[in-house]
Amino acid sequence: MRSVRVLKAVEDIRNSFLSYPLWLSLGWQDVKQRYRRSALGPFWITLSLGVTVVMMGVLYAKLFKQDIRFYLPYLATGMVIWSLISTMINESATVFIQAEGIIKQIPMPFGIHVLRMIWRNVIIFFHNMLVVLAVMVFFRVNPGWNIFLFPFAVFLIVLNGYGVGILLGILGTRFRDIVQIVASIVQILFFVTPVMWTASSIKNKIWIIQSNPLFHVFNIARNGLLGGAIPWHSWGVVLLMTVLGWGLAFRMLVRYRARIAYWL
Amino acid sequence: MSTYIKAENVCVDFPIFNAPHRSFKKNLLRVATGGRISSEAGKGVSIRALDAIDFEVREGERLGLTGHNGSGKSTLLRVLAGVYEPTTGTIVVRGRIASLLDISIGMDFEASGLENIYLRGLLMGLPRQVIRSKIDEITVFSELGDYIEMPVRTYSSGMVMRLAFSIATSIEADILLMDEWLSVGDADFVKKAEDKLKSLISRTPILVMASHSPEILKEVCTKVMRLEGGRVS
Question: Is the pLDDT of residue A152 over 80?
Fold first, then answer.
C-alpha cells in the first residue's frame, strides 16, 4: 500500500508541472481579477511599492545613518524579495482551502493549486521588479556578472515555494489555526531578517542572524542584483533548505494526499 | 478497452474535528437522516457517509442513485469522480469522466464569457485547441450572441446558467456524472437543453445520476440503487 501512495505522490507532483496550461491561466486570471476595472491594473502593485521604497529609503537612510546611494537599492531589492517570499508563505497555508470548490468537484494534482499560487506571485514579482530596475538605473548600480546568478536565486526561491506550499497547505487544511500562526511568524521574520537593516551593521553575535535561513535567501538574491563577492556558503544553505523542504513536503504528500479532500 | 465501474466494499468516513463528542443524551436523540455518526476512543468523531458499497456498472448502463438527503448520493458521485479516495475498499473506474456535479464551478464573473469558456475547458482538462474549436458551438447554443465578449457579471442569472450548461455539455466523455437532472433557462431553452442533454447521454457509454424524482429515474436509468444512511438498501 505504501508503494502505491509513494507512486501517487510522485505522479501528483509530475502531473502538476505538466498541467502548466491550467495553472498558468488560473494564476494569470487571479491577478487580472484583482485589478479588473482599475485603470493601472497590476501596475498599482509597482506604484505602491515604489512609493513605499522611496519614502522609507529616504527616512531610514537618515535613521540608520546610511548613504542613500547604497541604502535605497538595498531596500528596494529587499522589499521586492520580501514581498514575494512573505506572500507565498502566507498564501501557502490557505492554498487548498481557497481551492475547495475545485478540489471537491474535479480531481486534479494538488500541486496545481500550489503552482497557481506561485505563478500569481511571480507575476506580481515581475511587476515589482520594475521598481528595482528604476532604482538601479537611477543610482547606476552595476551588478556585473552576478546578474546571471539572479535568475537562479529566484528559481530557488520559487522551488522552495512549492515545497512550502505543499507542506503548509496540508497542515493549514487540517489545522485551521495554522493560518494565524503562519501570519504571526511571517511578521516576526520581517524584523529578524535583513530586509530593511543591513547585517553588517551588527558587529558581534552574527551567528544569530546567520542561523535564520531567510538571511541566506536574501543574501543570494541581493548579491545577484547589487554585485559583490558571491556568497557561496549562502547558496549552499539555500540548496540544502530546498532539498530538506522538498523531502518533508514529499513525505507529507505521500501520507496525507488522499486526506486533503476529506479535511476541506 | 471497455468502459466500466466496479466498486467493492467502498467505505467513506469523514472526520469531524469540531464536533463535540457524543454524550448519552445525544445517543438517545438519534436523527433519522444522514450517515452514521460514530466516535472511537482517541480518534475523534467521524461520519460514515458510505458503508460497504458494492456495485458494478457496465458499458451502456445508466445507473440512478436515489435516497434521502444525506444518504450518500453526492458522496458516492464524488468518489466516482475521484475527489474522495475511499477510506477502505476499492473502486476501479475505467474511462474518461465528465462531472456535471456543479456546472458553474470556476466561473469568474469579472471575466468575459469567452474567457470563462477557456477557464472551464482547461479545468476539465481540455487542451486549448480543442476548446477553441468548441467556442462557436457553445456561443450559438447558449444564445448569448455578442454578450459572449462581455463580463459575466453583466449577465442575467439565466444567461449565466445557459453559458455554464452549454460549456459543460459540450464535453465528450465515457462516463457522465450528474447530481439531479440539469434543467436551465426559460421554457424554450429548457426544451432545447433537455434535447442536448439526452443526446449527450445517448452518446456516453455510462451515466451515473443522483435524483429524487422517480419519473426521471424511470425514464433515463436502466437500473436504480437506493441508498439509506450510506448503505445500499
Answer: yes
